[in-house]
């Protein structure tokens, strides 16, 4: 059954692809706006804290309207807290990454996420991975090394931020998989956002600088991008299957290159482009093999919203 059929709607793959492409653009704009704020002197912890605060404020009316359905009720608060901690670490590390690196470089390195997901799924979910997927994972990490070039003058310690961000994100996705079918999607999103804000608030306040009016406007745009990206992705996944839409998450690298060039006058060098292509092909092959084997597919190179959308379409409630 397709995602659209599961939700009683029409299967519209063309429109669904368009919505996902737009969602990836919106999420990349959010990253670009975060980079702009750090260029203006705002600390990454503060950027992340205020983003989560504004998202919580936007979720509050939904919480009030659905209070009778107990949106915060869960039988596994420990998993929610752990997931929230991992994802706020991922988000904050990525803001540190875009502060120090070109947007397209941080985005490219972040595509190591599906490789981490596959490895962690073997360790924690006992999923079987064949020789071909292990080979693709090895090739993917070779692509990462081509981008990082450790030991050369091109290497920067800040390049480890998107790697660690991807590891935290992949770990959070493993927890999402473990909870799938047992939690309402809105409950997962609400817990993750609330826990993330509680965790990041002390760090954001420790380096607090009152934002200017322009920075407040950029922060509202970031929060709006967060919400809009979520809605676009969820709507897209209601109109077509995840197996069709997941590869389009990789278009974030195209948007990152365009935004980097137009907004920050940066563009990746040839080794970075080559490493990115190797990493993308490896991730797509891992996704393809998982789809062929009918294992729930790893969402390659995607934002947290794609996971939320997948959880929504798989949740029978």
What would your notes on this structure say?
- Mean pLDDT is 87; it is low at 1-8 and 295-317.
- The protein has one domain (30-312).
- The two termini are 16 Å apart.
- It has helices at residues 3-6, 13-39, 44-65, 77-100, 103-110, 113-124, 131-148, 160-179, 185-206, 213-239, 242-245, 252-264, 270-292, 304-314.
- It contains 14 helices and no strands.
- The protein has 317 residues and is an all-alpha fold.
- The radius of gyration is 19 Å and the shape is globular.
- Helix 3 packs across helix 10 (213-239).
Please provide a brief summary of the model.
This protein is mainly alpha-helical and 317 residues long. It has 14 helices and no strands. The two termini are 16 Å apart.
Explain the layout of strands and helices.
Elements: H1 3-6, H2 13-39, H3 44-65, H4 77-100, H5 103-110, H6 113-124, H7 131-148, H8 160-179, H9 185-206, H10 213-239, H11 242-245, H12 252-264, H13 270-292, H14 304-314
Helix pairs in contact: 2-10, 2-12, 3-4, 3-9, 3-10, 4-5, 4-8, 4-9, 5-8, 5-12, 6-8, 7-13, 10-14
């Amino acid at each position: 059954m397709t995602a659209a059929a599961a939700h009683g709607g029409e299967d519209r793959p063309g429109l669904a692809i368009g919505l996902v492409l737009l969602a990836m653009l919106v999420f990349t704009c959010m990253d670009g706006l975060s980079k702009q704020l750090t260029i203006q002197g705002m600390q990454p912890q503060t950027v992340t804290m205020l983003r989560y605060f504004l998202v919580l404020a936007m979720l509050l009316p939904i919480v009030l309207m659905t209070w009778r359905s107990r949106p915060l009720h869960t039988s596994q608060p420990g998993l929610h807290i752990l997931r929230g901690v991992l994802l706020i670490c991922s988000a904050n590390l990525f803001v540190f990454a875009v502060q120090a690196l070109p947007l397209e470089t941080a985005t490219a390195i972040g595509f190591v996420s599906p490789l981490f997901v596959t490895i962690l799924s073997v360790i924690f979910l006992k999923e079987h991975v064949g020789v071909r997927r292990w080979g693709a994972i090895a090739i993917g990490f070779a692509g990462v090394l081509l981008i990082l070039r450790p030991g050369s003058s091109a290497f920067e310690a800040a390049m480890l931020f998107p790697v660690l961000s991807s590891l935290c994100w992949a770990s959070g996705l493993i927890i999402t998989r473990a909870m799938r079918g047992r939690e309402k999607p809105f409950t997962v999103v609400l817990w993750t956002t609330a826990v993330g804000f509680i965790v990041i608030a002390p760090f954001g306040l420790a380096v607090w600088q009152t934002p200017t009016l322009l920075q407040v406007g950029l922060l509202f745009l970031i929060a709006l991008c967060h919400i809009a990206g979520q809605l676009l992705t969820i709507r897209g996944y209601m109109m077509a299957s995840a197996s069709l839409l997941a590869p389009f998450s990789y278009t974030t690298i195209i948007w990152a290159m365009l935004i980097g060039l137009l907004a920050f006058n940066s563009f990746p060098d040839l080794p970075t482009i080559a490493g990115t292509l190797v990493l993308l092909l490896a991730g797509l092959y891992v996704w393809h093999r998982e789809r062929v084997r009918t294992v729930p597919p790893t969402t390659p190179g995607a934002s947290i919203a794609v996971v939320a959308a997948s959880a929504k379409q798989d949740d029978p409630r």
